[in-house]
């Protein structure tokens, strides 16, 4: 188990154009996958997958920048810092370039390359090289000039034969000429002062085949082939100095050293081109570590890795220091649980057809992450009893230190006080417990949805086996239930599970709709499927289910949304039927989230619904679905991806967490869970000042409390009933007009009238 000390990072404050207030957002990004790094003065600039961090090599201070600060969540490919212009350039695989101004912390998104009429797969930015205030940007189609003074693009050089688009890996200036190493078309050379460099005829080919990089090192011009042959320019041709055993990944010079990085080696050469160091990945006591890039600063070598951040060592020592901002292990977060004071994270998983073999090329071996508001804890795969394809997190409501992790390959993993204790599978749960899939490897036990009932029993949905509905009872006994009444084969592929107030278990499935079961009613199963007479779902592929504060069952499918009017219908109706939510948009009646692939539905303390989608971001809709309160996407919020894997809410704080394929962020929601009494009712902001444009929040409420707001003379201006722990007032008189300045009385009473509370709020217009 790895535990990292917590740094209070100074987050760079950078203005951006999101319509939502960035102060309401937090980023929970992984900085493990290092794409590039750049050393300038006493600062190390590091680009991870889709976020940046910076280390002061003198003070050791670390700071970060991510989507909450205005950074794009696209995949980064290169980074460069100009000390003269105090600007940092970030290049992306899709051609986006971001300019960060060190002086005012502003972020400029430069989309010129993205918008060029070129194939999208050749816009990758590979390298930046500055010369006389002009940055020469190496791309997969050629070279582009960028002026650091004017922040404008100049000429574009298509330097292939007859002006063809060819992939340029790196450029350098040597003896008045610009040299470009190309990935497949040799090395090209031209006079740097030639005003017609956009004419391909001005470029001469000085070497053939493919080259990974080129650098000016002291008085030498050096280049390296795709195969790892380090070569030196000898006046009219390149000659080989040495041959490496692996393909070069990074090639650069810094502080009088030449540094070549391969998957498992960092080679360092002095000015005489004598190798003075070979740092092997085996020297770092981490299994299967892989290098990506390296540089030298003040006598220390900094090595970027594929999964483990940065490692630093002094050139004359063998001690490695791991440099890594706190965060989860990966950005592609599969499932989360934020219901307690801790945030739990797992990384999956399975594909859209619940197949763990087609997710990251096989049942994954990822670790578990936990954030306790002060530090991140990683529980590595090696300590998980080989539990693979971890898909969901279920916490015992009576003991939050007892956590169960569903595995879509290995069964059910139990953790006590952050320590994995038991892996439940077909070998240790008895004849009525977990079973392996027939005809597959013996240890393939696919547990997905799980939920605790009021008696402390843990119910499980186990896929592709007979008697797939399981219960692990509080007394340690296992029991299974056959499913032939649902489907003749009795074999289903299960998704999520929720349990309602009546003890009915509701389960989503891949192709069999939603299944309800209640053992207290003669072990009755009922199914909601496609068809007007079968349940009226838009698709039998039900991806998400949630029970709201009015006991309605909300169902998200591959092709839209449906609502069962009451879970009580299970007890009284043979065929359960759902209905769409019809809204008016531009005076036209239409179905809410029509044809949307819905990935998750979560109900907040005000009974509003947070709905995640596969490609359209997140929707927050009102309790009845008639109003869309927010629609967060990558274009109007710090959301790093429009593909939402999971959503969860901390009911105590109202913080809403979004797990996406490109990182995790949270939004400070205003709706909290209902309290047990009115002792902690709080009104904010108070007073409401003229410049404030938001709503007044009244939190700490009990469910179904009556709230009445009146002016000092007793005139009622607002009345509502809480559906959770928080309500909002827009400071209008029943929505008609803004109320005048003054003190307003807030009268709160429980549904039975026994408990009451009175608060005041002052409004200043």
Automatic annotation (TrEMBL):
InterPro entries documented for this protein: PorZ_N (IPR048954), Reg_prop (IPR011110), Secre_tail (IPR026444), WD40/YVTN_repeat-like_dom_sf (IPR015943)
Keyword Signal: yes
Position of the signal peptide: 1-19
Pfam families with a match to the protein in the record: PorZ_N_b_propeller, Reg_prop
PorZ N-terminal beta-propeller domain location: 44-203
Annotated keywords: Signal
Protein name per Swiss-Prot or TrEMBL: Two-component regulator propeller domain-containing protein
Origin species: Flavobacterium myungsuense
């Amino acid at each position: 188990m790895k535990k990292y000390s917590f740094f209070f990072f100074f987050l760079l404050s950078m203005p951006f154009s999101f319509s939502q207030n960035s102060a309401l957002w937090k980023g929970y990004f992984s900085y493990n996958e290092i794409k590039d790094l750049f050393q300038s003065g006493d600062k190390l600039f590091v680009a991870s997958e889709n976020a940046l961090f910076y280390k002061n090599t003198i003070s050791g201070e670390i700071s970060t920048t991510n989507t909450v600060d205005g950074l794009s969540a696209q995949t980064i490919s290169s980074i460069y810092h100009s000390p003269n212009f105090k600007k940092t350039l970030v290049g992306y695989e899709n051609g986006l370039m971001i300019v960060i101004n060190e002086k005012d912390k502003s972020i400029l998104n430069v989309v010129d390359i993205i918008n060029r009429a070129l194939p999208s797969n050749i816009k990758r930015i590979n390298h930046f090289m500055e010369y006389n205030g002009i940055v020469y940007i190496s791309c997969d189609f050629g070279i582009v000039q960028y002026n650091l003074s004017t922040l404008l693009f100049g000429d574009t050089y298509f330097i292939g034969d007859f002006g063809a688009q060819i992939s340029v890996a790196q450029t350098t200036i040597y003896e008045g000429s610009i040299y470009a190493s190309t990935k497949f078309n040799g090395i090209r050379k031209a006079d740097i002062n030639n005003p017609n460099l956009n004419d391909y005829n001005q470029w001469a080919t000085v070497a053939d085949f493919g080259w990974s990089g080129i650098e000016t090192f002291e008085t030498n011009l050096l280049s390296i082939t795709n195969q790892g042959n380090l070569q030196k320019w000898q006046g009219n041709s390149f000659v080989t100095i040495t041959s490496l055993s692996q393909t070069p990944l990074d090639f650069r010079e810094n502080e009088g050293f030449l540094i070549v990085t391969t998957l498992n080696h960092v080679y360092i050469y002095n000015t005489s081109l004598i190798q003075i160091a070979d740092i092997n990945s085996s020297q770092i006591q981490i299994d299967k570590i892989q290098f990506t890039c390296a540089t030298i600063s003040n006598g220390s070598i900094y090595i970027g890795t594929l999964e483990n951040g940065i490692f630093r060592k002094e050139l004359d020592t063998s001690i490695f220091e791991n440099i890594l901002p706190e965060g989860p292990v990966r950005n592609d977060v599969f499932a989360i649980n934020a219901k307690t004071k801790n945030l739990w994270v797992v990384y999956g998983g399975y594909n859209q057809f619940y197949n763990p073999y087609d997710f990251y090329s096989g049942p994954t071996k990822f670790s578990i992450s936990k954030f306790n508001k002060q530090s991140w804890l990683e529980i590595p795969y090696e300590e998980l009893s080989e539990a693979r394809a971890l898909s969901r997190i279920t916490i015992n409501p009576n003991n939050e230190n007892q956590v169960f992790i569903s595995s879509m390959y290995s069964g059910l993993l139990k953790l006590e006080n952050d320590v994995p204790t038991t892996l439940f599978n077909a070998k240790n749960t008895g004849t009525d417990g977990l079973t392996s899939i027939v005809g597959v490897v013996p240890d393939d036990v696919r547990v997905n949805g799980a939920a605790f009932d009021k008696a402390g029993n843990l119910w499980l949905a186990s896929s592709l086996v007979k008697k797939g509905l399981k219960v692990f009872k509080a007394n340690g006994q296992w029991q299974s239930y056959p499913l032939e009444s649902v489907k003749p084969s009795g074999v289903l592929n299960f998704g999520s599970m929720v349990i309602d107030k009546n003890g009915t278990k509701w389960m989503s499935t891949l192709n069999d709709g939603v299944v309800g079961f209640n053992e207290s009613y003669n072990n009755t199963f009922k199914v909601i499927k496609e068809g007007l007479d079968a349940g009226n779902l838009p698709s039998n592929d039900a991806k998400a289910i949630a029970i709201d504060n009015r006991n309605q069952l909300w169902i998200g499918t591959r092709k839209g949304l449906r609502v069962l009017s009451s879970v009580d219908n299970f007890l009284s109706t043979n065929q359960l039927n759902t209905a769409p939510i019809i809204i008016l948009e531009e005076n036209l009646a239409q179905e809410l989230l029509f044809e949307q692939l819905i990935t998750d539905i979560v109900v907040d303390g005000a009974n509003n619904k947070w709905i995640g989608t596969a490609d359209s971001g997140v929707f927050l809709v009102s309790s009845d679905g008639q109003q869309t309160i927010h629609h967060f996407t990558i274009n109007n919020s710090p959301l790093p991806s429009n593909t939402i894997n999971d959503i969860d809410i901390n009911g105590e704080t109202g913080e809403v967490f979004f797990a996406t394929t490109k990182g995790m962020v949270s939004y400070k929601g205003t709706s909290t869970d209902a309290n047990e009494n009115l002792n902690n009712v709080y009104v904010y902001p108070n007073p409401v000042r003229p410049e404030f444009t938001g709503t007044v929040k009244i939190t700490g409420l009990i469910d179904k409390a009556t709230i009445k707001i009146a002016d000092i003379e007793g005139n009622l201006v607002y009345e509502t009933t809480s559906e959770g722990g928080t309500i909002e007032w827009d400071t209008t008189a029943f929505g008609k007009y803004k109320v005048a300045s003054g003190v307003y009385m807030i009268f709160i009473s429980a549904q039975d009238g026994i408990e009451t509370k009175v608060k005041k709020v002052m409004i200043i217009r």
